[in-house]
Write a structure and sequence with these properties.
The chain is an alpha+beta fold. The protein is built from 20 helices and ten strands. The protein has three domains: 209 residues, no CATH class; 146 residues, no CATH class; 68 residues, Arc Repressor Mutant, subunit A, CATH 1.10.10. Strands 5-4-7-8 form a four-stranded mixed β-sheet. A two-stranded antiparallel sheet has the order 1-6. β7 and β8 form a beta hairpin. α7 packs antiparallel against α8, α13 packs across α15 and α18 packs across α19.
Length: 467
Amino acid sequence: MLKTGLELKQQQKLSPLQIQTIKLIMMPVQELEQKVRAELESNPVLDDTPGPDSDPDTKDVSIDAIKEDGDIPAYRLKVNNWGKDPRPEYNTFAVKEGFTQSLQRQLGFRNLTPHQREVASFIIGSLDDDGYLRRSTDTLVDDLAFRANIETTTEEVEEMLQVIQDFEPSGVGARDLRECLLIQLRNLNQTPEVRTAIRIVDECFQDFSNKHFQKICSKLNITEEQLKAAFAKIVKLNPSPGGQVEDAYVDQSQQIVPDFILDEHDGVLDFTMPRFNVPEIRVNKKYADLLLDAKGSSERAQKEAAAFVKQKLDSAKWFVEALKQRQNTLSKTMRAILDYQYDYFLDGDESNLRPMVLKDIAEMTGFDISTISRVVNSKFIETHFGIFPLKYFFSEGMENKEGEEVSTRELKKVLQECVDSEDKKKPLTDEELVDKMAERGYNIARRTIAKYRRQLNIPIARWRKEI
């Protein structure tokens, strides 16, 4: 038996303006510049070049002046929400060259045959994020044949690997930590301390890993002072050569431009949102004239042209209004962050950084949490104490023994201070670090100490032990 009925469903559908605004909010200033220029190219109604007959009052005209019936009292509607200087002085910080990119560039300077270069290039692409080659030469020979159609031998792969291991950063291309350290030591000036360090890593690596210092002295017949001098050389080596360079930011752009610039004067915090190369846009007069000329016309071609222009005008309206809403949203969010973290932004002292989550700023601004998340993603602020991503200022928190809320960043700072001040001959265990933190007024569980220690790249107590 068939049942019939009427079911009502309420669905929220985003308008073109809302969709456009969401997309623009997520963009940092560099992406915004590219988006605006792409929109200028695709929509002939938009224009970024003022004509000789520009109306000086058009900057005050609202985008709502574009009516549904085509009446347009002013033709040039621009987003006048930037500073007057289109190219103000600003600071940027460069993104490091990508790890793979750097190695390929160094490969280009080597005198190799095209075949050797292909083999070496494949090996570079097979390195992991730490710069290690964790695959056997036999596997690489097979992969070169099946995936790249390159016939080679294990001997040639080994030969090209030796070439790569001569690249910077030193230690790259190693197959394990022992080989990584040896490569770096052999590239140093061969002083007595370095030669002893090479013997320690080469002949006593297991004892070195387990910090069995007396066994090393006995096996190599060296004094404790010689061991200490050699050990000082080893601990300065980089166990993760690939980690020196981030591939995450390798992009067409090699600079990150701050979206906000902080200004502090006599305890008053303010900020600017520099425009940089983002052009101001307005409605092109000749297309608006075309729409007006078509009003009331009975000619089919003229009406079709008018319909096309109307569609482009609507698109322009949404885009310009979305730019204004982006500006307003970013501005209100940044203002709320500055107010919430006022003490921190005065001088950059991390101990003044309050616990802050997205919900806190959402409540202050009236925006959704998802909107705040989009704003802080990929946005940067330049301050008088450095350039920071907005995400840096958000953290969880917990209470100290006085019941005051403190941020996880403050807890990590105190934990680092405890480790830095410990006796390196008897480093503190996680349980002892719990007690040390409690003495300073922070009651933290051992598992939390272990988590923060890992996040700070602090090894366990046994690995922190020194001679």
